[in-house]
Amino acid sequence: MEIGLIGLGKMGGNMAERIRNGGHTVVGFDRSPEAARDVASLEELVSTLAAPRTVWIMVPSGAPTAQTIRDLSDLLSEGDLVIDGGNSKYTDDAVHAELLGAKGISFVDAGVSGGVWGLKNGYALMVGGAVQDVARVQPIFDALKPEGEGGFVHAGTTVGAGHFAKMVHNGIEYGMMQAYAEGYELMAASPLLDNVAETFKSWQQGTVIRSWLLDLAVLALQDDPELSKLRGYAADSGEGRWTVEAAIDNAVPLPVITAALFARFSSRQDDSPAMKMVAALRNQFGGHAIEAVGSVTASQAISPGTP
After folding, report:
1. Whole-prediction pTM value?
2. Which of 42, 195, 214, 227 has its CA 20 to 30 A from that of 293?
């Protein structure tokens, strides 16, 4: 099968290689001339592909994806098909499908998980779209997914189903990562443990919390047992926020995922304004020690104010 792939970054580049390894033809395009691209423009990409064309988009979500789809809507023809495999918000998919559908171009959304390990291990794929459209590109999905029966799901026939499933997947990932992180911090703080890294490693077999994330935590600790090379700052891709928003829309409680998202916000504050207020209140009602900027240490308590 022949497919055009737009976006040859860490994910897209590896995906193109895995698709080729599966026996298919990939015509790759990236806006950066330094990328290992096969064509130099979207126009050249479309003209190179034989009709009916299939084009997979792997560019950042939001404006870059929307602009790429608008450009393709002017270049592609009736009977062609577009797959958005980026981390788009699921609500964007209906807009993109309508724009393309007005010109007879089909649309499939695909949530993709696998990161930098996907080339070797395969990518987990969560797909949304009409049955006939998904079936049309199933050979590409089969080339990308891991060997065996797992790793692929046609999550729903309504566009957006794939990205919604991937969004929830990433929300769960937030919670799992936060649990491992909190466990690490507690063990590192306790004087009882001599080797936190080896404790994590021991959990890889025979425990109910073993997982690929645990394996990755072990790798990180092998390289840097005290994580001293890192700053405790964690960004969020947006999917954690969207998961919490969807929970509110559907009146579904997500305390773990929500707390994990908020923990990432806290990580970006060198000196949390909220914790300043907590410290001030503890000092006011109980005379607890506080640290004043530049001069006062924890042992120098400011006198509590009048109730």
Report:
1. 0.87
2. 227
Note if 34 is an active site residue.
Answer: no
CA distance 60 to 85: 10
How many residues are present in the chain?
307
Active-site pick, 17, 44, 173, 276: 173
* Helix pair angle (239-249, 161-189), 10° resolution: 110
Grade residue 272 by pLDDT with cuts at 50, 70 and 90.
low
Least confident of 81-85, 115-119, 130-134, 296-300: 296-300
Residue 166 annotated as catalytic: yes
Long-range CB contact pairs, 73-77, < 8 A, 24+: 73/99, 73/100, 73/103, 73/105, 75/42, 75/43, 75/46, 76/46, 76/100, 76/103, 76/105, 77/51, 77/52, 77/53, 77/103, 77/104, 77/105
Query: Which of the following is catalytic: 89, 145, 166, 239?
Result: 166
Place of tokens 């503890």: 282
Number of H helices, E strands in the chain: 13, 7
Question: Whose structure tokens read 């890889």?
Answer: 204
